[in-house]
Amino acid sequence: MAEYIPPALDWVREQVELYESSGGTQGTTLRDTGLPCIIVTHKGNKSGAIRKIPLMRVQDGDNYVLVGSYGGSPKHPVWVHNIRANPDVEIRDETEVLKMRVHEITDDATRDRLWQISADAFPPYDKYQAKTDRKIPVFLAEPV
Question: Which pLDDT belongs to residue 1?
Answer without folding.
Answer: 76
